[in-house]
Amino acid sequence: MVMLHHVILVAVISAPVGHRAADAVPTPWGANGHRIVAAIAERHLLPVTRVRIAELLGPAPLARWGEWADKYRATDEGRHTAPWHYVNVPDGERYEAAPFEAPRDIIQALEQQESIVADRSRPTAERARALKLLVHFVADIHQPLHVGRADDRGGNDVDVRWFGMSTNLHTVWDTHLLEHHRLSYTEYAAFLDFASPADISAWLQSGSVDWAHESMAVRDSVYALRGARGDDVPDLRWDYADAMTPLMERRLVQAGIRLAGVLNRVLGEEAEGR
To answer: 3-class DSSP state for residue 233?
Structure first.
């Protein structure tokens, strides 16, 4: 196991020009996806980071909090966080920033929550909430359809069938593609956590804007749908699952490694008197 000591996170405190979120929010990566990312991250935490996380969240595994942000956004208190789970960027464009007072998308939310977690002068409850949001958002930004196209709400309006069952493309990536393999989140995390030191080092030399552009770069392959039936609704089966699984697994591992890097930096180094 390689311990992660440093990660570079691009700080974006502003709103994207021309990339407003759609009114309806895409559903975030499914529960097991978030648990896998958190479980992989936990395997790479510094000892001092583990202590600081336990001080904020208690002794439960980090995976316990992976999907918390989805439940929080359904409450009156957390409703304002709904647009923080994604960003829309049109094809052929890059994320661009302009000054804005508050988070409007996932990139800005990641920066804000990281700064709150790192600030030990803030109330513990506020830092704990920010930590749970941070754990969730690092996973979300690695799901390709969370850096989506506004016109189809990140694939939510793309009707497909999954082995004959009516659904949409976003839900396939949130849930069906992962659940297709019938593994628990702990099994999947253990199976995937074999990134090389070279890959880990390379993945850490990046930040949230880079992660968003990576998701955009693979978006076309996610939309490469075949097997349309007579009603023109693609029926995705083994060919699609086999083609997309390596990409899905790579994004899960990258998210777990990068989440550990962020937490080691904002809690581990801070705890050592940075």
So the answer is: coil
Kindly indicate the confidence band of residue 96, based on its pLDDT and cuts at 50, 70 and 90.
Answer: confident
Q: Which amino acid is at 175?
A: T
Residues 6+ apart with CB under 8 A from 247: 144, 218, 221, 222
Distance of alpha carbon 228 from alpha carbon 231, whole angstroms:
7
pTM recorded for the entire structure: 0.86
Do 190 and 179 meet the contact criterion of CB atoms below 8 Å apart? no
Q: What is the mean pLDDT of residues 113-140?
A: 97
Burial status of residue 102 (CB atoms within 10 A of its CB: 0-12, 13-18, 19 or more): exposed
C-alpha 36: how far from its chain's center?
A: 11
pLDDT at 29 over 80: no
Q: Are 221 and 247 in contact (CB under 8 A)?
A: yes
**Token pair 């552009």 is at which residue?**
213
State how beta strands 87-88 and 147-148 pair.
parallel
Find how far residue 64's CA is from the centre of its chain.
16
Neighbours of 229 (CB within 10 A): 10
Q: Which residue has the tokens 């050592």?
A: 272
Half-sphere exposure of 18 (CA within 13 A, CB side): 7
